[in-house]
TrEMBL record:
PANTHER family: COBYRIC ACID SYNTHASE, DETHIOBIOTIN SYNTHETASE
Name the UniProt record assigns to this protein: Cobyric acid synthase
Active site: 332 (nucleophile), 420
NCBIfam families registered for this protein in UniProt: cobQ (TIGR00313), PRK00784.1 (NF001989)
Domain spans labelled CobB/CobQ-like glutamine amidotransferase: 253-427
CDD domains: CobQ_N, GATase1_CobQ
Gene3D superfamilies on file: 3.40.50.880, P-loop containing nucleotide triphosphate hydrolases
Function summary: Catalyzes amidations at positions B, D, E, and G on adenosylcobyrinic A,C-diamide. NH(2) groups are provided by glutamine, and one molecule of ATP is hydrogenolyzed for each amidation.
Annotated family: Belongs to the CobB/CobQ family. CobQ subfamily.
Gene name of this polypeptide: cobQ
Amino acid sequence: MKGLLIAGTTSDAGKSLVTAAACRLFARNGVRVAPFKSQNMSNNSMVCADGAEIGRAQWLQAIAARVEPEAAMNPVLLKPGSDRRSHIVLMGQPAGTLESGEFATGRRHLAAAAFEAFRDLASRYDVILAEGAGSPAEVNLRGGDYVNMGLAREVGLPVVVVGDIDRGGVLAAMYGTLALLDPEDQAHLKGWIVNKFRGSLDLLRPGLVTLEERTGRPVLGVLPWLPDLWLDAEDALAIGGWSKDTRSGPKLTVAAVRFPRISNATDIDALAAEPGLDVSFTVRGGDLADADLVVLPGSRATMSDLAWLRERGLDEVIAKRVADGRPVLGICGGNQMLAQVIEDPNGIEGGGTVAGLGLLPTRVLFGADKLLGRPTGEWRGQPVTAYEIHHGVTTLTSGGDAEEFLDGFTSGSVWGTTWHGAFENDGFRRAFLTEVAQRAGSSWQPVPDAAGYADRREQMLDRLADALDDNVGFTSLMDLCEQAGGTS
């Protein structure tokens, strides 16, 4: 077995992107490589071809590796529903909940499933590139850990630690990471990768030399700051990482509500990638009032986030937009909020019935079973492929008057659908945005011959792989992978 664990000094240090870059780099060198993450805590997920739900980051890493995404690549997915409870997805399927008090000691069965999944992948691939979670120095959680040093010890993986220098304090964070590990864990840590560096490397080099002297581990490379890498963020800290479009010409402004329990926020990435769109996540009523299009994205806690929306008076801002004929789009949980009523007889979100925003003539009923799928359809003659992850089923109310929109409905200037990923379809996205621009009175039009969303993703993955190859090197990483199994 050959493999490597890519850990980080913090969340959002760059573990996911470095792992994706390594997957693409290994694939380009003819290595049959698979990504892996024992446990992912994220509300950004994806449905595989076989109906299994996994973290979005591991899906992207599989795309980078040019292999089919599958449940074994992310055997445990925890989807936070509140500050104290997460919903468990085990090997791609719902498997109950995990309370905060169980986090350190109540995950043994999850660890066993994760280790089994790793060994299964290792029997079918040449190299396994595992991504850690948070920081391996979270010693308060070490006893139940199976995603960082717990995984490294179990299967004998060498470990590299990525640190984000743009945040500051990266050298101290790396030194402290090693210092907090016990000797057996320290033996697995083989080196450091500095991420997001901009400036003169000559100024940084004395610090790198000191780090190597103090830790006895080499700095394997320094990765440059690469702007406009908005690839499939899994961490809430990374949502909205794209930059503003600075090109001249008519603009279309999009404001997406940043719900406390936002899920599948990557739906907004495809809009942000379209030339001439200025897209932002916001919690400000003024932003929602001024935008050409308001998006209510997915939510892992629809009823709770709807209450949050009302507490801030944002429901009134949205209602006024609709009264004025200005565009509003709801996706999955956001679509459910647009309904007249939301019913939860099975206690999926705590139970009960609440009034929706009443902006579509629909009713939402939460069923006991989660619906997972990869649906296809069309709109305005444009083909659409998507994925769905939801309990709530939306139907028209008696006497409701609305047209079909994908699997949902549209009425006036309001659109709603449960389909995620629909806007990654270039023709559909541009047709929809053209209609939005007309309703909003904007002169924006799609840019002819602009790169498609999938093409841009491929370009970014290759750009990441180039940076990793230039500054760390395929041979260096492969040499580390070949050390797997040597330390226990």
